[in-house]
Amino acid sequence: MTMINGFISDWLSHRRVLHHMLTDVTTEQLRMKPWEKGMSLSGLVLHITGSMGMFASTVQNGAYTPAVPPKPFSTIEELKANIEAETAQTESILRTITPEQLDQPIDFFGNVLRGSVLLQNAKDHEIHHKGQMFIYLRIAGIDKLPFFVSRG
Fold first, then answer.
1. Residue ranges of the domains in the chain?
2. How is 58-119 classified by DSSP, letter by letter?
3. What's the distance, CA 12 to chain centroid?
4. pTM, 2 dp
5. pLDDT tens digits, 56-101
6. Which residues form a coiled coil (predicted)?
7. Which residues, 6 or more positions from 148, have their beta carbon under 8 angstroms from its beta carbon?
């Protein structure tokens, strides 16, 4: 298994959980914030999914590439569909990344990191925020939550 394929497999084992975490979320809960200045539940989901796409595009392009703005949505079903599409798009970008791109230095806001390190940071970022999602969902009253990683 190539390095990028191993990364994608590990990343998807976490991303699949994000999809499962939204199983019992209602449209009404999407705007819930645990504190006044916090991100909404849907905002946190969009931050997680948009960030990985941004990191993948940055490694692919060799320079910071802003995240693509999320598609509008009104319901939890539309949000879930957007997440599915964004996950597929990000996986597609990741599958094009070459060993040379993984080894290239990239200036990321004053930090020069190899592409592989930037992707690892991206996965860690996603895991961090997924942990926050577990708390959000508990506050929202959702008791049935998946394990933090899914291997299949």
1. 3-139
2. HHHHTS--PPPPPPP-SSHHHHHHHHHHHHHHHHHHHHH--HHHHHSEEEETTEEEEHHHHH
3. 10
4. 0.91
5. 999 999 999 999 898 899 999 999 999 999 999 999 999 999 999 9
6. none
7. 14, 17, 130, 131, 134
